[in-house]
Each structure stands twice: as C-alpha cells, then as structure tokens.
Amino acid sequence: MERPDVVIVGGGVMGTAAARALSARGRAVTLLERFTFGHGSGSSGGSTRNFRLTYHDPVYVRMAREALARWRRLESDAGVELLRVVGGLDVGAATDLSAAALEAAGESFERPSAAEVAERWPILRFDGATAFVYQSEGAILRADEAIGAQARLARETGAELRERTAVDAVRPSGEGVEIVTSDGEAIRASTAIVTAGAWAAPLLGGAGIHLSLRPTLEQSTHFDAGEEGSSIPTVIDWDSAPQQPPYLVPNPFRVGEIKAGAHLSGPVIDPDARSFEPDVDREAHTVMWVGEHLASRPPILRTETCLYTTTPDEDFVIDRTGPLVIGSPCSGHGFKFAPLIGEALADLATGEQPPVPLDRFRMDRPGLRV
Known about the structure:
Distance between the termini: 34 Å
Radius of gyration: 20 Å
CATH architecture of the largest domain: 3-Layer(bba) Sandwich
Structural class: alpha/beta
CATH topology of the largest domain: FAD/NAD(P)-binding domain
CATH class of the largest domain: Alpha Beta
Strand order of the largest sheet: 6-5-14-15-16-13-17
Number of strands: 19
Number of helices: 8
C-alpha cells in the first residue's frame, strides 16, 4: 500500500503539468496514465495545438497571457522549443467581441480590412468577410513534445509516473482518498487530482460527483500547402458557422503542412468504444471550406481524430471537493493553458492560492451538475 501526497489520474497535458508543478515543490506525486504519454486515444496527443490570446472574454485573454509566460519558462527549463509564433487571424462579425476583450485585457491587436488581409496573405481568400482581428502573438504548440517535456521534468524532480495503468475507482476515504487500479492495486493519498479527460465523468460519478462532461469525437484534416502555406497565420472563421467555426492551423515545424477542421462538430461517443476512422462527410466539408479559402487548393495528407470533453457552457472545471481536485480544462480549447492550469491544480491540492481566480470554473455552477 503506497502513500504519496497526491495521486494524479490521467497523464495528458494537464496531468503532466500538475505533476511537474507538485514535484517541483517537493511533494510526493504518483501519476497514473491508462495509455502512454502522448497517446492518440484521448485529447492531448498529436503534433500541434493552437495558442492564442484572442478570445471573446477578457478572463480567457488574461489567462492566456499568464499561460504564455509559463510556456516560455517550460521551454527554458526543458531546453526545447515548444511554441513558435505565427500570428492569429479571426474572421467575422464575432471579432467585435474579441477586439473588445483584447482591449479590456490591455492586449494589442489589429483590425485589417479584407483588402489588407488579401495583400498580406495572398493565399487566403476571405473577400466576402467584413471584419477581422489579427493578434501577432498567436502561435503553434508542439503538443507531443510539451507532454514529454512536462513528464520528464516531473520525473527529474521525483514524481512517479506510470503508464498503462488504468484506474477503476476514485474513492474518498477517511481523511484522504483511495485509488483502485484495474489490476486491483489500491493507492492511498491525502489528495487526488482527476485529469482524465473523456474518462473523468464515470470516475467522478463513482465518487458521487455527477458532472455534465460530454465526450465527442472530433477530427482535423492535414494538407500540404507547400512553401506558400508556410506564411499562414492561424485562422478561425466565425461567419461560416458560429457554433462550429472552421479553423486553419499551420505547422511551422513542418514547412507547408496545415490542418483544418470544424470546432465541436463531432458526435457524442463512449471513449472506450471510439473509432479512429475519420468521418468522410466531415472530411469533405473541411476540404470544401479549405478550397474556398485557400488559393492553392492543397492536397490532403491525412485526417486524424481526437476527443473533446465539453461542458454545457464550454467553460472549464477547476475545483476541489473534499480530497478530490477536478481538472477538466476542456471543451476543445484547454491545451494552451496547460502550464497555468497545472499550477492551479497543484495549488488546489496543497491549499495554496491559485495564480488566477477560479470562481468561473466551479463545479457547482448552474447547468454543470447532473
């Protein structure tokens, strides 16, 4: 029977961030990951993720600014480049809200015209759009390398990280918590952090915490845009489909490669019965959108799938109840905040003051409990 200070369930980008933050403080940490670090079965795996300061709410803008400083610190500590700036372009009427949020948070941005967008990025085609926001610090994160760097640094400061260790139950017990693995091993600790993504809801339900966390199967299609594609910023098109906006994400670490998809457009699934095959209709829709908005009409390289775990209001869940800390920074936009949220989860586990206000992310807010 082991007795670490904190057990973390789930070793994606949030779990490894929390492990790094806790072990750096000298806490005894055990992290349990059901697959391997950087696996493709959940939400954190893959080559790249979008980083952006541009949001419709200044709360998230300020959090992104805090996260950016921590990404740079992680790069320095790990000795590896994790984030490369490409700029970020938002398209559509919704950019008025983004501009207001950026201004409220004290961030710089531009409002280019359609003609200016066409002149600056000749490969892009948004002639019918009437509003844009460009924020120069939009960037691309190396997702797999980020998880690997956090895991390595956590190990170097004493954390025990276990792969291929599935958890069947999380049980508050006495003054602490008991974690039971699928092999029947019981691990006791003062506190547990649940960062299990699409597997969080059933685990928390077994502990009597019932949250509306909806796992969906999402996908993105990768294209070869050639040398011309190497200068593209990240793009979100709010006019085409405000609830499921198409996006374009370049990969500056692989010249000319871009990926595109539609946010929150996939079906609800069971994460243990998910398919890895892309939906051909959604792929075709993405190809059509890319063909309309890129002059080069690039060929497809591949289509990849991943999981989102979404709350009804698309805000995160970052909270503590008894010995359990819940970290579900999700809804398809959490990765960019990982070092910041990892620190906040560590603070909740140790009783310290988190670096940002967390009231918005409480588990008892309306509509989240079921």
